[in-house]
Amino acid sequence: MPKEIFLQEGTLITSKTDLKGLIVYANNDFLKYADFSMKEVLNQPHNIVRHSDMPRTVFKFLWDYVKEGKEIFAYVKNRTKNNDYYWVFANVTPSIDTNNNVIGYYSVRRMPNRNAIATIEKLYNDLLKIEQQQGINKGVEALKDFCKSTGKTYNELIFSLQNSK
Ligand SMILES: Cc1cc2nc3c(=O)[nH]c(=O)nc-3n(C[C@H](O)[C@H](O)[C@H](O)COP(=O)(O)O)c2cc1C
């Protein structure tokens, strides 16, 4: 049975990718939690830690935001090399050169608020079903509707979940 690995308080899991999402840097905590060696992750697509419970909708949001030069926050369930998993509260930002061109991406992952994970697991489960039955565009619509129902933008919603009691 896959087991959950819990991030310790204060942990910062960081990675950098090129424009295609190939990993060009991972810190020690990235390697420790994902249980990979540097050699195994360098130049690999970032989906090396993708968990099958993650809706594609969330990654579509992620890529749409960062390609436009905007940062994004997301709860992500990642898999380890041995098929265990760990939840993170992630912030992904574009790296920009002096001419305002996006030249790569940077991400920092922290310990998630446990109360938020219950809400997110339900939301992701619903999104997965919608994507499977009706396609990714309906998933995107459903996530937008969910945000609207809370009166918040996507990033505001995720941030408020992280700061909720
Ligand atoms: C800087 C950066 C960090 C990312 N971090 C993760 C991550 O921790 N877990 C993950 O599953 N995908 C992450 N992604 C998204 C992956 O590139 C990919 O879109 C996702 O795993 C879904 O895989 P797919 O695009 O092959 O469907 C990250 C992307 C970028 C640019």
UniProtKB/TrEMBL annotation:
Signal peptide: none annotated. Coiled coil: none annotated. The keyword Transferase applies. CDD domains: PAS (cd00130). One of its GO terms (molecular function) is kinase activity. It holds the Pfam family PAS_3. Residues 23-108 form the PAS fold-3 domain. Keywords: Kinase, Transferase. This is Histidine kinase.
